[in-house]
Amino acid sequence: WTCPLCLSLNFGSRSACPKCNTPKPEGGAAAQQAAIALANAMPGSAATGAIVGYVAPGSVQPVSSWAKQWESGPANGMLVG
Q1: Residue partners of 47: CB distance under 8 A and separation at least 6
Q2: Using an 8 Å Cβ cutoff, are 31 and 4 in contact?
Q3: Nearest to 46 by CA among 1, 3, 2, 5
Q4: Cα–Cα distance between 18 and 16 in angstroms, integer?
Q5: Chain segment 12-54, per-residue pLDDT in tens
Q6: Are 66 and 60 in contact (CB under 8 A)?
Q7: pTM passes above 0.70
Q8: Which residues contact 64 (CB under 8 A, 6 or more apart)?
Q9: Spatial contact of 37 and 31, defined as CB atoms under 8 Å apart
């Protein structure tokens, strides 16, 4: 089954998604598709422009000071070997 929130593919024996802990939707494939369409309309879903999956380095600007320190590269020769 496909998780309606994170769109992760799960084994049928699982009762909840191991990635986001969303419970398995009840019903068949049509009910799952309806749940996925509803989840895609939510803010922060992959369909609304949230960054999901691999992001190439430098393609997204960091927004926090913590993230900016990693974007700047090695400091004082650290991690250079």
Answers
A1: 40, 41
A2: no
A3: 5
A4: 6
A5: 889 999 999 989 888 777 777 787 777 777 666 655 556 666 7
A6: no
A7: no
A8: none
A9: no
